[in-house]
Design goal:
The protein is an alpha+beta fold. The chain folds into two domains: about 120 residues; about 160 residues, Rieske Iron-sulfur Protein (3-layer Sandwich). The chain is about 35% helix and about 10% strand. The strands form three sheets. Strands 1-2-3-4 form a four-stranded antiparallel β-sheet. The longest helix has about 30 residues. It is a multi-pass membrane protein. InterPro entries: QcrA_N, Rieske_2Fe-2S, Rieske_2Fe-2S_sf, Rieske_Fe-S_prot, Rieske_Fe-S_prot_C.
Length: about 350
């Protein structure tokens, strides 16, 4: 059967769009940059001088804030057991540091808005391939930046900025002083903990003594000396716990590769090692029972429990100190003695 093709009807309106974009014959013209509006500092030299004075005054105010933070560190020392002294130290040191950094930020913003060159310019795109003139162009760019910012010409701003930046890091350097023990030998301090011969191993934080029969294969207990649970936080609890905290694990006795000296330091496959990483003192918290590896989550040092907690990966410099243990007449796990070496980070052992 033949079909007739109907001619387009002019009254039906435009044909549906095919979805193709139609080229614009008259492109939009670039309107250019708007007229330049001069700042008040560009119009009035007195206003410019005032802006310069404001900037370098703020930089010197930053220097004063840094000096105050250092002075407050010594004027308001943190006393043991006195929460008010800690609050006062944090408040006044923090105010000094906040003033130092805030003044630098405000001065830098005011400098850029009121003093630096305010001329608009267009930066045209160019090929990224290096040319022979690239080094000369870079030198020219730095020279122009120096001219526009006034860094080379305005000595007061330049010198006050350098002084403020140098002073701003001084409080942080001084605060590092509080990280080191004062008036004591770190090696001697970390060479002794609360552990004594016959002292029972207890669960943390309840202080419940642990029997050897309660330690199952593959388990890991965080333990403390039994008397530690009876101390309050103001009797040196946290300081003693930080040194004496121990991880207790049980392996098959034949899995332990012990030296002759340490053959008697374990009991029926149960071993106890310091929980304090020998890298920077983070708590070793993750135990993988299939590989017998202990992992420090801070910097990924790994220790092999089956071989004296020796370092098998990471930045730690020496094995975890081992606590010699045994059982008493009632079957409770007890320490044979204190650790035989300092606990904690290895850098404390430098002489």
């Amino acid at each position: 059967m033949a079909h007739e093709i109907e001619a387009p009807d002019q009254d039906r309106g435009p044909a549906p769009s095919s979805g193709l974009a139609v080229a614009v014959t008259d492109p939009v013209r670039n309107p250019g940059l708007p007229p330049h509006r001069e700042r008040v500092t560009d119009q009035d030299p007195a206003k410019m001088r005032a802006a310069v004075r404001t900037v370098y005054t703020l930089f010197y105010l930053s220097v004063a804030g840094s000096i105050w933070a250092i002075a407050a560190y010594f004027l308001f020392p943190m006393e043991d057991g006195e929460l008010a002294s800690v609050r006062a130290n944090n408040l006044f040191v923090g105010l000094g540091i906040a003033l130092a950094l805030l003044a630098i930020g405000v001065a830098a913003i005011h400098w850029s808005k009121a003093i630096m060159s305010d001329t608009e310019h267009v930066e045209h795109r160019h090929p990224t391939r290096g040319k022979d003139t690239t080094r000369a162009a870079a030198v020219q760019a730095f020279a122009e930046a120096n001219e526009e910012s006034g860094f080379g010409r305005r000595a007061m701003i330049r010198n006050s900025l350098i002084a403020a930046l140098v002073a701003s890091v001084a409080p942080g350097i001084v605060l590092f002083r509080g990280l080191a023990p004062q008036g004591v030998n770190p090696v001697e301090l970390l060479s002794h903990t609360m552990w004594e011969s016959g002292m029972r191993l207890a669960r943390d934080p309840s202080g419940t003594p642990i029997k050897a029969s309660e330690v199952t294969l593959g388990s890991a207990f965080q333990v403390i000396p039994e008397p530690l649970a009876g101390l309050s936080h103001y009797d040196g609890y946290l300081e003693e716990k930080a040194k004496a905290i121990v991880l207790l694990m049980r392996l098959l006795p034949e899995q332990l590769q012990e030296t002759e000296e340490r053959a008697s330091w374990s009991y029926d496959g149960i071993v106890a090692y310091s929980k304090v990483c020998t890298h920077v003192g983070c708590p070793v918290a993750l135990y993988e029972q299939q590989t017998h590896h202990l992992l420090c989550p801070c910097h990924q040092s790994q220790f092999d429990v089956s071989r004296g907690a020796e370092v098998i990966f990471g930045p730690a410099a020496r094995p975890l100190p081992q606590l010699p243990i045994t059982v008493d007449d009632e079957g409770y796990l007890v320490a044979q003695s204190d650790f035989h070496e300092p606990v904690g980070p290895s850098f404390w052992e430098r002489h």
